[in-house]
Each structure stands twice: as structure tokens, then as C-alpha cells.
Write the C-alpha cells for this entry.
Amino acid sequence: HVQLVESGGGSVQAGGSLRLSCAVSGLTISWKCMGWFRQAPGKAREGVAGIGTNGVATTTDSVKGRFTISRDNAKKTLFLEVNSLKADDTAMYYCAAKVVEGSCSTVTAIDLWGRGTQVTVS
């Protein structure tokens, strides 16, 4: 049974930082493309950052230089460091995985989703 469980969200002031974590069970994450997505109220879910099977990380332009994705394969955990937070970063943040080979940069490519962790910036 595969599970993705996010944690680390919270309420912070603008300029603050958080470290989001995604604990994975039932899946070897080193073999999978994994990413973080977010969804603000009334908006579509969007990709924030991804990390491929080769370890190459990418981030969307709006968070480039502020957000960093990483993973600990041994601990089966995916991370997202979020710094210099802005009000526009307020959203539910979701951990995502693609089970089969391929990119995980779009919502339609994702096979597995966590339930999300809320980030609120005031």
C-alpha cells in the first residue's frame, strides 16, 4: 500500500521559511520522479518543483531561487525548503509521484498524491 504523507506546513509571516516533508511508504523513491504541487483557493493545481530519477531538480519560475526540492532516498522522504515566502505562496501543498517512467512536471502525469499540507503566508 503506497502512501505519501506531507507535513511541515503552517502559518508564517511574509519573508519567513518552512520545510515541507513528504514521507513515502510502499515505494522506492530513488526510482521515481517526484514533485511538489500547490493549489490556492479558486485556482488550478500547479507544479512547483520536481526531482527526477537522475536527481536533477527543477523549479517553476515563480519560486526559482526561493524554493528547493531534495530527497533522502534512504529515509524515503521528499523535502521542499520554502524561503522568502510571499502572500501569493499561500496554498495547499501536495507531494506527488509518478509510478511509471517519465516526467512528473504536470498534474496529468502524476499517479500518486498525498493529502496536502497547508501553507499560509500573511
Notes: The first strand starts at residue 3 and ends at 7. The chain has a mean pLDDT of 94. The radius of gyration is 13 Å.
